[in-house]
TrEMBL record:
Protein name: Uncharacterized protein
Organism: bioreactor metagenome
Length: 43
């Protein structure tokens, strides 16, 4: 019984991490695009 609870909590944790990773990548990509644009204007 305890084993099932552990597996479920691990799955929930992984889903949580994946969600954070997705939003982090999205914001990183936005910032990268902004930096590239700034560099491009300075050239």
């Amino acid at each position: 019984m305890m084993f099932i609870v552990v597996i479920e909590s691990i799955g929930a944790f992984l889903a949580f991490v994946r969600q954070i990773d997705k939003s982090l990548r999205k914001s990183l990509k936005k910032n990268l695009d902004r930096v590239v644009l700034l560099c491009y204007r300075n050239i």
